Amino acid sequence: MCNLSNKANQPFAKAKNPIGKAVVGIDMGPSTIAMVTDQKALLQAFCDEVASFDKTIKALQRKINRSMRATHSENYEPNRIIKNSNGKKQTKLGKSKQGTSHWQYSNRCKALKFQVREAHRKMACARNTAQRQLANQVIELGKTIKTEKLSYKAFQKLFGKSVGRRSPATFISKLRYKAENAGGAVIEFNTYSTALSQTCVCGHKQKKPLKQRWHHCEQCGATAQRDLFSANLARYVHDNSLDTHQAQRAWSGVDTLLVQAVSKLNETAKGQSKRLSSFGLSQRQSGSSAKEKSTTDKALDDVGNCREPKSVNGLVLRTPWL
Hints:
This protein has helices spanning 5-8, 51-71, 107-141, 152-158, 160-166, 168-181, 191-194, 226-234, 244-268, 290-304; strands at 23-28, 32-36, 41-45, 84-85, 88-89, 144-148, 185-189, 214-216, 223-225, 237-238, 241-242, 311-312, 315-316. It is an alpha+beta fold. The protein has one domain. The protein has a five-stranded mixed β-sheet with strand order 3-2-1-6-7. A two-stranded antiparallel sheet has the order 4-5. The chain has a two-stranded antiparallel ribbon with strand order 8-9.
């Protein structure tokens, strides 16, 4: 008789979802996620599948607004703002605060509202699937995950739409559940005591604005993409304290992984919607934007390629391309 006591305590794991043994450092953003181990580094969009649903929902909401203005023009100001009823603003429930009905939805408007609800349902399903697949991808790298303990309420104030669509807090909950089932854990540490986005492997601290997507240390010269660099430092945090000595000793082998991750991202995201500005692919490592130079060069080329203006009876004709 076989002993099944050990197998009964372990959840079933699919063969296509192996469990890694490395320590994974994660840097979460409102629309990006960076993952770094001692053998691999990844930087990718976070739940990018929901972006298409967001465009559909916005288009449907614009149709609803046009329908409401067409059927209830008396309830709108000339600047398309809803009028107040006796000094009190009308609610979205179709009644003013005095209880008098002012809104009657047409069949077309009701059908559009149903399409909006259906789009939200599909977006929630797509987000759930994308988060589970991403959690499996992280567990495949390693079952011990270290990341910053973020304030998602502050995230909502700064990046409300992106956080509402992607729900990073829900992803961390799913990742913690899968890591614990695999025998690992998700370790969250304090952001104020570590300050990974401001700290270098040599221990030098320098504040950087959010728009600066590349880390460049003036002391040791270490350069890397900002999110990948923070994810790498997260692996060396112990008891809410960053071990800079360990990070500096391992930097000589990790810097190549970070460069390869950016090169791979630049190739796969070229000409696609996944090329987000938060990646910093259009920035130079010094922090200046390469987009400004390319725009200026293009403008100079356009001016140099302009043809001479046409003239009729001695009058110069100005054309739009001038």
